Amino acid sequence: MQPRWGVSEIAQELGVGASEVRAALSKLADLSMLGPADEADDVVAVHPEVGLAAYIHRREVEIRAQQMELASMRAVTSDLAAVFAAQRTRHGNAGLERLESVSSVRTRLSELSRQATSELLAFMPGGAHSREALEASRPLDEESLAAGVTLRTIYLDSVRNDRATTEYARWLSELGGEIRTAPSLPLRMLIADRSVALLPIDPEDTKAGAVVVHAPGVLSALVSLFDMVWDRASPLGVQQTNAAEDPTPQEVTLLNLLAQGQTDDVASRKLGLSLRTTRRLMASITAKLGARSRFEAAVLATRAGWL
Question: CA–CA separation, 196 vs 65, rounded Å?
Answer without folding.
Answer: 28
